[in-house]
Amino acid sequence: MNPASTLNRLSRLLALIAAVTLLSVTVAQASAEKDTIKRSFSVEPGGTIYIDVDRGNVVVETFDGNQVHVEMDRLVNSSNADQVKRILARHEWEIKRDGSDIVVESQFENSGRRRSEEFRLKVLVKVPHEYNVDFSTGAGTVEVSDLRGYVNGKTGAGNITIGEIDGDVEVRSGSGNIKIEGVAGDLEVQSGAGNIRLGYVEGQIDAATGAGDITARITRQPRSDSHIESGAGNVVVYLEGEIGLMVDAKASVGSARCDFGLEVEGRWMSKSFSGRINGGGPELTLRSGVGNVSLRRL
Length: 298
What we know:
By secondary structure, the protein is mainly β. The protein contains 2 helices and 24 strands. It starts with a helix and ends with a strand.
């Protein structure tokens, strides 16, 4: 058989599969019914939004004003009115005010007779620029925009994306990637399995992932020790040239690199380097079980 002819047939087949898949997704989306719940509250800056949902994607945005707006979209994959009503009845929710704090709770009652995919949730929250965020989700992505305050949260499974935070950050994901643009305070971040990507961090760093790469930037003199570790993945830290640290870096199975004159030691697959940079300072510990460790100059 002519290879070119076979390739053309394969290309047409793949195009047909893609078209059918797109059509199926479009039809499914078209048949989904959406029910939206909206609430607004006047608050004082410096309060906290508490979000506790068992499933669904969460987005937290900031805006000019002293109000908190909550919008909860409930999507049901059915066009049957009675079935939609029954499914929505299995969703328990509450949105309430507690002083300058706002509490958002959501719980969907699973049924053994129906798949959980029949119900989807998206929570959009708009808060003042100076506000705190505390979230907990069973499964779903979380996005938090730039703000002045702290961010504390966890998700059982899902990616976490956070902007520039003028405060401390403590987040973890059971399984998912974590990306943080910047932290003016201290940072504690953990993923069971996923990549961690950190912008600038001005305070202490405590970052760990069971499996995945970690990249971080240290742009100001740390106030205390930092620890960055991956069980299986590369660890790369970018450092401003004048920062003083005591460095202890090791790749149990992998290579090592240091742009600050520290000698890389080790034989076979295990490599390490350690010593003072710019006269020393707080300790920076880098570890990779299986992967490379690098300390690079910004």
